[in-house]
Amino acid sequence: MDIKKFLSESRAVSPVIGVILMVAITVILAAVIGTFVLGLGDQVGDTAPQASFSFDYDDDSNILTITHESGDAIPFERLSVSENSDASVTDETTGDANSDDNMNAGDTIAVDFGSDLSDGDEVRLVWTSESGSNSATLQTYTR
């Protein structure tokens, strides 16, 4: 047997590599198509923003000021305030320092309550996705 000819023969290498690459491409393509067919692809962009907020409640005027401390810029229309108290929200005022319709670091929302918040009352800052299918509580203030 000729050893030199045996070691230099490489005709079978290309078809094996070709088959492996085709199988890998098929598996990846099936995973991507399956993700979107099952509707999981729509939820990728609906993740809640990451931001930090501080709260300051004024007992005299019954106004809770929510300040964006740091994190992602969030469109004001995606934010809402929810409370579980007898004191209902009478007015929400956005203090947009940048005038770009986003709540950026340093921007505030002033929430005016009709009466005093009691001890144990919770006020939540809630984000809702553009499609309306997802929502998340970004931060909670407890009196």
Automatic annotation (TrEMBL):
Coiled coil: none annotated. The keyword Secreted does not apply. Keywords: Membrane, Transmembrane, Transmembrane helix. InterPro entries: Flagellin/pilin_N_arc, Pilin_N_archaeal. Residues 11-85 form the Archaeal Type IV pilin N-terminal domain. Residues 77-105 are annotated as: Disordered. Residues 81-102 have a biased composition (Polar residues). The chain crosses the membrane at residues 12-40. PANTHER family: ARCHAEAL TYPE IV PILIN N-TERMINAL DOMAIN-CONTAINING PROTEIN, VNG6441H. This is Archaeal Type IV pilin N-terminal domain-containing protein. It comes from Haloferax sulfurifontis.
